[in-house]
Amino acid sequence: MPQRTIVITGASDGIGAAAARTLARAGERVVVVGRSAEKTRALAKELDSDYFVADFAELAQVRDLAARLKSDYPRIDVLANNAGGIMGTHALTVDGNESTFQINHLAPFLLTTLLMDTLIASDAKVINTASMANGFGKLDLFDLNSEHSYSTNRAYGTAKLANILFTSELHRRFHAQGITTAAFHPGVVRTNFAAESSSWFRHAYKTLLNRFMLTPDQGADTMLWLINGTPGTDWVSGAYYAKRAIAKANPQAYDAGLAQGLWEKSEELTAP
Prior knowledge:
The protein is an alpha/beta fold. The chain is 42% helix and 12% strand. The protein contains ten helices and eight strands. The chain has helices at 14-25, 37-47, 59-72, 99-114, 116-121, 152-174, 201-204, 216-219, 221-228, 256-270, and strands at residues 5-8, 29-34, 50-53, 78-81, 125-129, 180-185, 240-242, 245-246. It has an eight-stranded mixed beta sheet, with helices on both faces. Helix 4 (99-114) packs parallel to helix 6 (152-174) and helix 6 crosses helix 10 (256-270).
């Protein structure tokens, strides 16, 4: 098979870094994107890969990232939207959006849509890292900033629910033009993703429960299966997966009208 160009966000640590290492060893052209300049640079040096640094808490940096990717890579075979995490108390970004919602959903939505011409021309796969936490999310199109009700865990669950809705609507809008897409739950992985949050999750990651969690390599398994598999044969475009199988999601995840409304609201919130 010819070498593919695979862009992975949130690649400086955890399952993103694990997937990047596996794909680079297999001879793929991996482009790593991360928030930490030090970690991202170190991984890129290890893999002899290109890298970009971007903080998804600022949409201007996402726009700049998209422009540089479009300029440097006329073909992008896979975009893995993997950046995200649990935040702390309710806070707005410089763009005026609730931080958990922006970092986990709006930023990857913006990156994907800005790259759409390149992705369509490449018959690309778009793989979105969601979470079983979508089950305790509740998406309200009229309260996307969680102004009326906020909890750290619910905000994260809602953002992961948004990832699944984005995946289904991306499939509906662009599958006929060659885009295939899937969302997946990586499992409970031993990473630093909750370290800066006020969620009870962060305590689990520092206790004896840590030893029962998956390694980053194990957590990256379904992502790699989706990246390397054949849509229509190995997996179904537009679906949500866990452990290489279609998984049950929040009932809201199957609301086509909600998915369309979220897309339209996301376009409004990410407009320059």
